[in-house]
Fold this sequence. Notes:
about 160 residues, alpha+beta, 2 domains, 4-stranded antiparallel sheet, 3 helices, 4 strands, about 55% helix, about 15% strand
Amino acid sequence: MRSRFFRSILFWLCLAGAPLAGLWLGEGFVPIISPLAAIPFLLLPFAATFFSPSTRKLEKFFVLIATWVLFAGGWSLGLQNAEKAFDDCLKRSDNLREELYLFHYQNGSYPERLDALGIDIPGQRRLHDPLLVYRQEGGGYRLSFSGWDLQYEATQDSHFEAHRK
């Protein structure tokens, strides 16, 4: 009895973990065909199949397929979130630079964190830190964000420029 209970718990954890793992990897711009994605893409479906309460082979096969679909669906949603955050950075990052200039003009220095500006920061994601990275450097700052193969950087003296990773 106890063994069945733990098997059921592990089964449901594998099923629930598949879309969450996919979402996390997709939001992090991790390609679905990569070593990092291959581990949960293979481990979670086969573990769910192994811990499945059913003993029928056809039902275990459906569990395997369903877990793969859940993982791929989560990855796709995560990738959409990441692409929206990237587009948000492209559209609104120059406005952020203007806000930083105004803050510097009013306070004599740049903020330690972007939260001090009191505005909606571009590039927000659900499971990861914001895509836009802000660092104070000496008396200035550096802003950067990146996608699949491009990294954009700007400073207090220069607009955003794209560089290949």
